[in-house]
Task: structure prediction
Amino acid sequence: MPPAKILIVDDEAAVARSMQKTLLRAGFPAETAQNVQAGWQALQNGDFALALLDLNMPGFDGIPAPDAGMQLLKRIQAERPLPVIILSAYDDPNLAGQALAAGARGFTVKGREQAALELIQSILGGTAQ
Amino acid sequence: MTPAQLHKAERRARLLQAASQVGKQVTSILNLEELLPQTVDIICEAYNFYYAGVFLMDESGQRAVLRAGRGEAGKAMLAAGYKLESGSHSMIGWAIEHRKARIALDVDEDAEHFKNPYLPKTRSEMALPLVVGEKVLGAVTVQSEEERAFSDEDILTLQTMADQLAVAINNAFLMRDLEHANAELLRAKTYEALTAATTQAIHWIGNKALPMTTAIERLRQDAPGGKIDVEDLNLLAESVRLILDVKENLLGPIREPKMRPAMPDDLLRAAALQNGLPAASLNILTDPATPLIYADTAQIIRAFSSLLKNAREARAKHIQAKIAPSDNDMVKIVIEDDGDGIANDLKDKIWAVFFTTRPGHTGLGLPAAMLVIHQHQGSIALTSVPRQGTSVEIFLPAATRPESGLISSGKKTILLLDDDDPWAAFATQTLTSAGHSVLREAGKTPDLVLVDEFQQTPLAEVLEKLAAANLTGKTVLLSASPSAERMNQLAQKGFRRVALKPYTQAEFHTLE
Result:
């Protein structure tokens, strides 16, 4: 069985790439997309086991929005359910509450990549297969 | 008419004039520090009184504080912080407490008259309350050296004046309260805006810095194995570059500007060369009557550079700049491009700090350009049509070119290395008129070499040739936008003289 593939959607290319490297090192294949539209497209075409979504990035209309990640989360929940972890630059309990209420499996603060990795491992059941 | 009747008529005319003057001030002066002294002067001059003063209630409402007083006595009392308790044993205290005028035609006979050591000659006194609606603002005192100095007419006109004065004082108080409220609102708004901007800045910088921490962690993990991931190092370098870009864009315009006269077209040309813009893609049309602008050349080049960079990134093939004199001693600079233009829904966002639609950009170029132009007391506006292009209109203050005779006459041979542009023509004319020989290409050994930092020939190539010709020590690099980094680079190659590019005869004088 191939290892679970993960999609990272974040308009901060360096942040996305850094997270991708951490996942690759842990044995998880990972791809990146730089906005909500590209992320949704990637999910249609790829066999992803989990998605990591930034909150503040260009939305479906291409205009930057602070809740763009939530827009994508809602569409995923409605049309193509899979586990989602929300990434945010802010260590904000209110944002975390909103994300979890909307169906996210987890909420993690950017830069705490080890914590994110552990969360992914717990959701997908241990280490990368 | 008898002499007594004539005197009375004249006096009445003077009083009416004084009342009219106070009435005019009521509507025109909202500053109490101006209104009150003028009022006491008008009263004393019109009625030929010994003294007049205005008291206003303090914040507690318990004391009437002297705010204006006529003559030396008034000055002395103001300096002493003269005040009277409301309801105290004084004419003013009584008038305030009872909201009524009180007159002592012979002060020795009035129990409420307070013998003021500053005003020993007072023989009669009148205290008039300053009342607006239910509120007592204070009182006016009028004093004469004569007994029974106040006629019925005086009392009527003075009370009318006092009523008008009370309205004026009340208006001044209302204006002061309004100004305080405005200032408070402005402070609150400024604080809110600063907080929002700071939060955005921290958010942005934090995001850029995040990969550094994890990349460093990975490098640390790899280090014992002897393998270093070059991509991690590149990530670090890119993050640091972006953070430094932000610092430069935010702090650059805040640095203290060095204002001087400068040629706007030359600064635009320098910005184009700094951006690596092909010469054929920028066309500058300058009205010959255009004066110099008054500018910090480095900051204006930075602002122009941002605008040209935007045009390039919008895939403009041609950029045209039109520079011409404008009204009110301003110079108008219009930069038009045929690039992608700006989508209508983004037009009101482009001036916002950190707003960008392009990956890898800071979103600080346009806001920083606007800040620079505003700091120069200028203005900037942008119009754009999607898929047709963008036009930026800038107004900057004109400077006078000081055609002083400061330039000394000399007989040096000066090699001037620059493109054939208007600045080179100005430099040649200025130096020639001072008696120097100007060479535009290497030939006779020069006494001095002037090199424009921004020219079509790459600077490294120019400097290499000068070094080969042993002219390093005679060379002065002229820069409209000098930087410590550039000076350091030049110094490593032996070129130690860098000067601000001169735009006036006086500035050329300092180079000789």
The first strand of chain B starts at residue 51 and ends at 57.
